């Protein structure tokens, strides 16, 4: 999907540079404003925020559509993200090689949220052979609910479920990059902006892991190509 940049007062290249720098390097909007000023672009915090919130989800959607195939053995876990002073839950899944599968920010950590996440991940990546989760009863119930849907819709495949803390070390380690980037951002003020920004961070992380292109292509060029 080609992203429309018409109506903006700045060139597409400037917008993409600002968005990429913010979601890849973990800076505050004040820092980003100074970085852009050093490059001759005077721009306020609100505009930078608007760019990140508007364009990050669109670029992330293109990244999901264009990423390399992933393995059929998954690891799923959730981590905590603070929004307006309250904890929310970032559901994340990677394959056995640590490649990003999908992610979803949720206000709740319950069976319904887990089911929505698994349905989303399967819709994006196909039905896996197996999924490893932690000892969470909500995650287990959500995955079992998905298996019921698969059984009665004629999908012909049921997902094997493994509950193991050890198997989930891969996804728990992968959380660290996301947390490192969000820490300097000084917190999120609204749920929708948090979800949008996290989509951009996850996309930058996928590029970092080589999920979108052959090695040797600069990360920013890969990010910018997702807007074409």
Automatic annotation (TrEMBL):
InterPro entries per the UniProt record, alphabetical: DDE_dom, Integrase_cat-core, IS_Transposase, RNaseH-like_sf, RNaseH_sf, Transpos_IS6
Coiled-coil region: none
The keyword DNA-binding is annotated on this UniProt entry: yes
GO molecular function, one term: DNA binding
Keyword DNA-binding: yes
Domain of life: Bacteria
GO annotation, biological process: DNA integration; DNA recombination; transposition
Assigned keywords, A-Z: DNA recombination, DNA-binding, Transposition
Residues covered by the Integrase catalytic domain: 65-227
Gene3D superfamilies: Ribonuclease H-like superfamily/Ribonuclease H
Biological role: Involved in the transposition of the insertion sequence.
The name this protein goes by in its record: IS6-family transposase
